[in-house]
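Example: Sel1 repeat family protein.
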Amino acid sequence: MAGILAFVTLTLAVVSNVVQLITGNSIFLWICAGLYPIGLIFGALEWAERRARFRTPVGANVAEVRELGLEARGAGDKKAAERLLQVAAERGDVEAMWQLATVLLERDGRAAQPWLERAAAKGHPMAQMFLNPGN
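Written out as structure tokens, the predicted fold is:
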């Protein structure tokens, strides 16, 4: 919600600034000056909400950590997704190993290789197909 509010207030600030430039009416400059910091505050709140939401919960089971990692990936937070999926994968979650490998493949195939091999060795069908496409 804070992200939407940040977007709206910053957009209104830019629009009021453009209107001020076109019309020369200084009231729009004051509106811009008021909206801009509010938009920054909403943006900071959105960042804090995301950061808190994708922190590894203490005592969470492996499936919960994996699901948080997948949620972070869906939200576009690749760093949080990688970190959470790595925690779940290191705890032995085969699906997390596969998902972590797919995240790592997007930036570095060599980093994904060990996780693909681990997932395949533990019987993950997609990892096995990825490593042995002819079989």
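The mean pLDDT is 83.
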